[in-house]
Amino acid sequence: MFNTYEEALDWIHARLRLGIKPGLKRMQWMMEKLDHPETKIKTVHIGGTNGKGSTVTFLRSILEAAGYRVGTFTSPYIEHFNERISVNGKPISDEELVELTNAIMPLADQLEETELGGPTEFEVITAMSLLYFAKVAKVDIVLYEVGLGGRFDSTNVIYPYLSVITNIGLDHTAILGDTHEQIAFEKAGIIKKHTAVVTGVKREDALKVIAARAEEEQSTLFRIGKDFSISEHISLSNGEEFSLKSPFGILDNLKIGMIGQHQTENASLAVLAAQYLKEKLGYSIGEQEIRLGLMEAFWPGRFEVISEKPLVILDGAHNDEGIQALTNEITNRYSDKKVHVVFTALKDKKLDKMIAQLDDAADKIVFVSFDFPRASSTADLMALSKSENKSFNEVWKTAILAEIEELGEDDVLIITGSLYFISEAKPILRKFFKKCDDLL
What we know:
Blueprint: H1 5-14, H2 25-33, E1 43-47, H3 52-65, E2 70-73, E3 85-87, E4 90-91, H4 94-112, H5 121-135, E5 141-145, E6 162-165, H6 173-176, H7 180-187, E7 196-199, H8 204-216, E8 221-223, E9 229-236, E10 239-246, E11 249-256, H9 261-281, H10 287-296, E12 304-307, E13 311-315, H11 320-333, E14 338-344, H12 351-361, E15 364-368, H13 378-384, E16 390-393, H14 396-406, E17 411-417, H15 419-439
Parallel strand pairs: 1-5, 1-6, 2-5, 6-7, 7-8, 13-17, 14-15, 14-17, 15-16
Antiparallel strand pairs: 2-3, 3-4, 9-10, 10-11, 12-13
């Protein structure tokens, strides 16, 4: 029995020792004990390599603008653990988290004694979210972000109204496979029978796998560039503008407040999902709500301008595709500036390609490490870089503050890499810039 938030959180985090254990049997066991909360909620399931969190945010914002009460389950968190289970963007309270942990802990202990073994941290949190949305929070719909892969991810116990697969990239290859087809097979595991799927996947080899799964499950498939398309894209100073043509109509001059061409694709997936919910399932979502929702959507740590003077940007580009999207934006927006980069990542990523792209985009790059079990060492990162202006600092806070002090009017600092790192850096930076503002 936990009495404090800290005790509950320590117990949850302690389950990290169990690592990643793909499979649904432990989740199914817990769902049975909890009287199947997964069957008592209306859901949309969102998977893919990159863009899951942004797509969740766009769709949540659209649904909120239409007056719906929307639950979300996302990972990882950026500033506060409770963000992972939220209603209309507001994280659950510390007291609610304690109550949920007390409800799940006895089941975890029982499960530990079976041949299945104890549930992982992510399985525990997923079970907590399902219990919360089914029996505590009164929500109209819940958006579930896949944690890893799809087929054996703990969120895959839900039977959604709609599935969304953002894109396919070579990430988590040790678990999901080392080809786009193998990874697509795992991601496509969230497609359920007679349930439509919207996808932003463009690679033909991966798309064939998804299409085959959709056909097998008799699911309607909406493909970017084929069944719906983006045109007239313009990069704005504070976001993007684009037009969208879909089977449900044409929407011209849509605007989003999130930066990056890739965000227009994430937004288009959310719009297609909203249009499907309206046309096929009777949700009351009009064009005005779509436009308002897109403009108001915000997802922390994704090309987030944390300070304008000096210009400092946080971006959780944690794999090859994420770095490519980041470097594209650096080239498009800041070709006239000196680009400083502070970077760290997890050692199980394909770091050589990531660092090669940053070498090309950055005028100066500083490698750091941080306190996380899978974090890369600065020595390993330095060895992969061919930049002529590279350095390292074991104390990431010192490195970031030193770079900020060095910035001139024509400079930009990009702090990027692991989302776990971004979650540590953002609160420190917010406090630093607030203190600077208070002194002015």
